[in-house]
Amino acid sequence: MKLARVIGNVVASRKHDCFRGHKILMVQPVDEYGEDSGPSFLSCDTVNAGPGDLVLVQQEGNTARELLGTRQDPFHSVIVGIVDAVAIDREGKKN
Amino acid sequence: MKLAKVIGTVVATKKSEKLQNLAILMIQPLDKKLQPVGEAIAAVDVVQAGPGEIVYYTLAREAAFALPEPDVPVDAAITGIVDRVQLEDKGINDRQRIFGKNG
């Protein structure tokens, strides 16, 4: 999963059925210190996240299918949580 | 999923039998500001997107699941036609609280 911040949303009235009833949000991946890292992408929201929220984004399809739909939905990316705290052990990271 | 613009169509009369009667479009990936990024790719269309339309597409194995018959050799599928992109980039709410002294 990735840490990312919500930077907007995409309105799409004509879309594959599996996305119906779900917001498609635009997310910007961030590193463990909250700095932007990598290109933004779209993700299917399941936790009612909004702009400025720090979220956990699941990118692999299987979990998306289990969480949201039938065995055969083309989800690729799903927002699975809104993050309250990130604690990094700086020393641990060095060695 | 990522944003893209439909820039053309691909006609392939001789193709994998499983790809028969599937519309294939050329799409140019776009960034959040709808500027072209990376190379154009061919993607199967399951939402009847038209030329010039802004769409979003799914990659990898999930693309095949967008199709009625999912065991097809497809790694990119257009799964939505975009009406509007609303950017609201305001950093991270409560960043100091979330990241503590690291933030």
Task: Summarize this structure briefly.
The complex is a heterodimer of chains A (95) and B (103). With 95 residues, chain A is mainly beta.
CATH fold group of chain B:
OB fold (Dihydrolipoamide Acetyltransferase, E2P)
Low-confidence stretches of chain A: none
Architecture per CATH nomenclature, i.e. the level-2 architecture of chain A? Beta Barrel
Our Rg estimate of chain B from Cα atoms comes to 17 Å
Strand segment tally of chain B = 6
Strand line-up across the major sheet of chain B: 1-2-3-5-4
Helicity of chain A, in percent?
10-25%
The biggest beta sheet of chain B, please?
Answer: 5 strands, mixed, barrel
Structural class assignment of chain B = mainly beta
Supply Rg of chain A. Answer: 14 Å
Give the DSSP E fraction of chain A (strand runs of 2 or more residues).
25-35%
Tally the structural domains of chain A: 1
Q: What percent of residues of chain B are in strands?
A: 35-45%
Biggest sheet, spatial arrangement of strands of chain A: 1-3-4-6-5
Describe this structure in words.
The complex is a heterodimer of chains A (95) and B (103). With 95 residues, chain A is mainly beta. Chain A has a single domain (2-82), classed as OB fold (Dihydrolipoamide Acetyltransferase, E2P) (Beta Barrel). Chain A has 2 helices and 6 strands, in the order βββββαβα. Chain A has helices spanning 61-68, 90-94; strands at residues 2-11, 14-15, 24-29, 41-45, 54-58, 78-82. In chain A, strands 1-3-4-6-5 form a 5-stranded mixed beta barrel. The longest helix of chain A has 8 residues, at 61-68. The mean pLDDT of chain A is 84. Chain B has 103 residues and is mainly beta. Chain B has one domain: EutN/Ccml (OB fold (Dihydrolipoamide Acetyltransferase, E2P)). Chain B contains 2 helices and 6 strands. Chain B has helices at residues 61-64, 95-99; strands spanning 2-10, 24-30, 41-45, 54-59, 76-81, 84-87. Chain B has a 5-stranded mixed barrel. The longest helix of chain B has 5 residues, at 95-99. Chain B is elongated. The chains are: A mainly beta (95), B mainly beta (103). The interface between A and B is large, with 45 and 43 residues. β2 (14-15) of chain A pairs antiparallel with β5 (76-81) of chain B.
